[in-house]
Design brief:
The chain is an alpha/beta fold and 117 residues long. Helix content is 29%, strand content 14%. It has helices at 2-9, 28-31, 38-44, 64-69, 87-95; strands at 16-18, 33-35, 47-48, 75-78, 101-104.
Length: 117
Amino acid sequence: IGAAVAKRLLAFDCKIIYSGPRRKHSLEPLLNATFVTQDQLLAQADFVVPLCPLTQSSMNMFNAETFSKMKRGSIFVNASRGDLVDQDALYDALRNGTIAAAGLDVTSPEPLPTDHP
């Protein structure tokens, strides 16, 4: 899924950086993509788009610590799984200006309660 998204972003002349458990050597030249550590990705990316399965290790992988490492002014887009994100930490990161915006295709719980900030 990540490679398909990166392929579509090429039309917008985006610089593609990615991280994950394995480097995808064969895709890098096709997508003009660069493998980086997760911390490097968070510090450099204008848009952070996690596209990974929900596992025990990925649950709440986007939390207060993760959001604090993101580039100021960056945008977080979750189109993967709602439980990858600590919703309260995301709200705090938005409220205090740590990140500029968020786009959520999925949430936890889904749908969010109407009284959720």
